[in-house]
Specification:
The protein has 177 residues and is α+β, with helices and mostly antiparallel strands. The chain contains five helices and seven strands. Helix 3 (107-121) links the parallel strand 4 and strand 5 (126-132).
Length: 177
């Protein structure tokens, strides 16, 4: 009989979880950067520098501005996802990542559902995201939850020169309920 691992999704606890956040964000941005280099010949940023900047500004992802969710299997941190408030009506999915050793276990789905629930609880009407074009499994997940492709949204932090390598999506929370 196969053992089906139990996934626990919870909000981060600071300062206890800061090193888990740092590691997962660094792993995500490093993997993304390397894949962008391989696929498109571009190197968007310095992952370590970006993570350290975001750690200093982590309040933007904490209530009441947003939320950070960690995923665990057997007490091992294996995924992360963030909700950033763009304004009272619009949230933004940021830095959703599942460690490659834990993929295909439904962790991304569980993190995404937690973010959608949090956005709904905050009264958001929409969630937006940007995702590299190479992340096809993530695209399938987002589309399966009802996200639709949109043009780059005004609040996106990605510079113009890298937008061609990304897809932009939006979920209408009022229609998805």
């Amino acid at each position: 009989m196969n053992h089906i691992p139990i996934v626990e999704i919870r909000n981060i606890k600071l300062p206890d979880d800061i090193e888990l956040v740092r590691k997962l964000w660094t792993d995500y941005l490093t993997w993304g950067n390397e894949t962008m280099q391989i696929n498109y010949g571009v190197h968007p940023h310095n992952p370590t520098k970006i993570v350290e900047q975001d750690i200093k500004e982590i309040d933007r992802y904490l209530p009441p501005n947003g939320q950070v969710f960690l995923a665990f299997i057997e007490n091992k941190a294996c995924g992360i996802g963030c909700l950033n408030n763009l304004d009272e009506e619009v949230g933004e999915l940021k830095r959703m990542f599942v460690d490659p050793a834990f993929r295909k276990l439904g962790i991304g789905r569980d993190i995404l559902q937690s973010i959608i629930n949090a956005a709904t609880d905050l009264g958001h009407k929409k969630i937006r995201l940007n995702t590299p074009k190479f992340m096809e499994a993530a695209h399938s997940l987002y589309l399966g939850f009802g996200f639709k492709l949109i043009p780059a949204y005004p609040e996106v932090e990605i510079t113009e020169d890298f937008r061609d390598y990304l897809l932009f999506m939006e979920l209408d929370l009022l229609r998805s309920n």
